[in-house]
Amino acid sequence: MDGLSHGEQTLHDIFRDSFVARRGLSGPGDDCARIQPPARSRLVLSCDQLVEGVHVESGTSARAMARKLLRRSLSDLAAAGASPWAASWTIAAPADRPLAWLKRLARAFVEEAAAFGCSVIGGDLSRAPALVLSCTLLGREGSRPAPGRGGARPGHWLVVTGRLGDAVRSGRHLRPEPRLVEGRILLERYRAAAMMDLSDGLAADLPRLCAASGVGAVVQLDAIPLAPPLRHDEAGWRSALGEGEDYELLAALRPAEARRALADPVLRRAGLHVIGDVVAGAGVRWEVDGRAIDPGAAGWSHDWR
Amino acid sequence: MDGLSHGEQTLHDIFRDSFVARRGLSGPGDDCARIQPPARSRLVLSCDQLVEGVHVESGTSARAMARKLLRRSLSDLAAAGASPWAASWTIAAPADRPLAWLKRLARAFVEEAAAFGCSVIGGDLSRAPALVLSCTLLGREGSRPAPGRGGARPGHWLVVTGRLGDAVRSGRHLRPEPRLVEGRILLERYRAAAMMDLSDGLAADLPRLCAASGVGAVVQLDAIPLAPPLRHDEAGWRSALGEGEDYELLAALRPAEARRALADPVLRRAGLHVIGDVVAGAGVRWEVDGRAIDPGAAGWSHDWR
User: Fold this and answer.
1) pLDDT of the residue at B297
2) What are phi and psi of A292, to 5 degrees?
3) Best of B8, B44, B134 to disrupt the A interface by mutation (most A CBs within 10 Å)?
4) Fewest C-beta in 10 Å: which of A139, A304, B118, B194?
């Protein structure tokens, strides 16, 4: 008697056979994965979800889902200036989801993880009424501790990587580029005082950074780097502030460090722009030509009645 | 502008305010949690899911769901002989789930985790068409490495803790007792050569241990400790082998260690029974009075077409 269904066994085989051995990590197959962190190392952990019909449209390919699931979590590691190390994930899938589709999902996830230097050490598989994926990543901190969101101080400059907005229409939300290198550089070379990734839109995410730091912010809407074809008008700002899914980094830097960072060749390649200032107080003031405006964009959030 | 919905903010506040500080762990609130493992420590990681309508009936209370979610993962740690340390979890919930229900879920999860010595360091929250929860636990290995499933050798005895079967009808599946103490004792005092928890039923789980170890097994059905009111008849064995959700430990011990373990007062209190032998070969032979029988129970598994 085997005890394992054909489908479940097939997926377990994929995980076992595709495990990328890495010092300090055991492969999947036991009740727990074993992790032996290098001496005096510090780890970071992030977790994220991908829900069909919420984060991706129904009918999105298995590969695109695996890619977005992993990269969203990698983007959290980027905000910590950490290096990807190990991944564990869960798959909840409807019983009528073809096994071939699940195999593509599993293979794509393992391949994506390997491409980012991450071993898939564990997972769990279940039937469910809807397709819900989750991913937990372990990363290794670099020489500086993850800054978190609480270190912004009045006088710091606010910078963002890349360009914001238009992620959904353009399809960029399905293949975000986690800013792992840029995050590490912002932290280690330019001592980012606070850093987070922009997943829910600047209008939702910046207030979180401000609240965690106990500060306010003033943002110049004109200074926000917009993804083409967006332009600096109401529609452009609304997309950049409220749409979310940018997976760019938002950081608070001391002005001297910010000036140096703006000249950093790697950061310049990704794009680095000063969008405003950290100020005393609370809340975010959005300005155009010194005039406060209400961008009318609340950012993406999940609400329950 | 706040940027966070009322519901999401409420849940985040619960996690932040209820964080149990523990050396080496940061609290929730940043993109990543920070983990500083004690010097030369080894960690284990397990992850598990709880899907409404699959692992628990629709309408199960928030507290019961939180409890089962956490304890299923703790049971994996028990099989590794590890101590609970940190938890990260994800909630995917329908938009019409009342916020009050989600608050009960969150509070119950944090309380359960604290009761087992575990800090909740991270999480993610999303809308979804169905209620799907996942839990990732980090544990600390004791003085001996987690045995895993691959160390059973011909001549070892197979033991189980507690009593098997009837978990669903009796409601025990909603409040499993993770065998954390027993797992540690089986590993550290009696050098368990292989260990796993029984979540899918002995008929599904034992073949996994055998396959991982490259061995076979002979089980005496009469020797399986059955949960009352089950009796040693076909219905009793079918429940014990095929129903799953026992969350007891299955271990392979050397005979001399097994004899000592049977006299251990803590293990006796939980219940420890020898149910069979590890043999050369492959597959499991289920015997009654020396006669092989097909228990007709395949164990619980998740299949896709």
Assistant:
1) 47
2) -75, 135
3) B134
4) A304
Domain topology for B157-292: Phosphoribosyl-aminoimidazole Synthetase; Chain A, domain 2 (3.90.650)
Q: How far apart are CA B69 and CA B62, in angstroms?
A: 11
Per-position DSSP letters for A124-162, written without gaps between them: EEEE-SS-EEEEEEEEE--SS----STT--TTPEEEEES
Q: How far apart are the first and last CA of chain A?
A: 48
A139 touching B, CB under 8 A?
A: yes
Tell me the nearest-neighbour CA distance from A228 into chain B, angstroms.
25
Q: What is the pLDDT of residue A24?
A: 86
Closest to B9 in 3D by CA, of A147, A132, A200: A200
pLDDT of residue B41: 86
For residue B198, report the phi and psi dihedrals to the nearest 5 degrees.
-95, 95
Q: ipTM for the complex?
A: 0.91
Query: Which of A7-16, A29-38, B274-283 has the lowest average pLDDT?
Result: A7-16
| Residue A270 three-state SS | helix
- Going by DSSP bridges, is the β-strand pair B119-127/B43-51 parallel, antiparallel, or unpaired? unpaired
* pLDDT tens track for A167-195: 998 989 999 999 999 999 999 999 999 99
Residues of A in contact with B140 (CB under 8 A): none
pLDDT greater than 50 at residue A1: no
Say if residue A16's pLDDT is above 90.
no
Closest by CA position to A108, among listed A180, A75, A60: A60
Q: What is the mean pLDDT of residues A78-98?
A: 96
d(CA A305, CA B201): 39
Characterize the bridge pairing of strands A119-127 and B83-93.
Answer: unpaired
| Chain A positions in Cβ-Cβ contact with residue B205 (cut-off 8 Å) | 3
Q: Does domain A9-140 bear CATH number 2.60.40.1120?
A: no
Q: Is A80 exposed, middle or buried (0-12, 13-18, 19+ CB in 10 A)?
A: buried
pLDDT-based confidence at B5, cuts 50/70/90? low
Q: Which residue type is seen at B88?
A: S
Q: Which residues contact B104 (CB under 8 A, 6 or more apart)?
A: B61, B62, B63
CA atoms within 13 A on the CB side of A43: 29
Comparing B27 with B261, the larger pLDDT belongs to B261
A248 touches chain B (CB under 8 A): no
Coil vs helix vs strand at B160: strand
B130/A127 touch (CB, cutoff 8 Å), yes or no: no
Domain chopping of chain A, boundaries = 9-140, 157-292
Q: Can you tell me the distance from the alpha carbon of B16 to that of B287, in angstroms, rounded to the nearest whole number?
A: 54
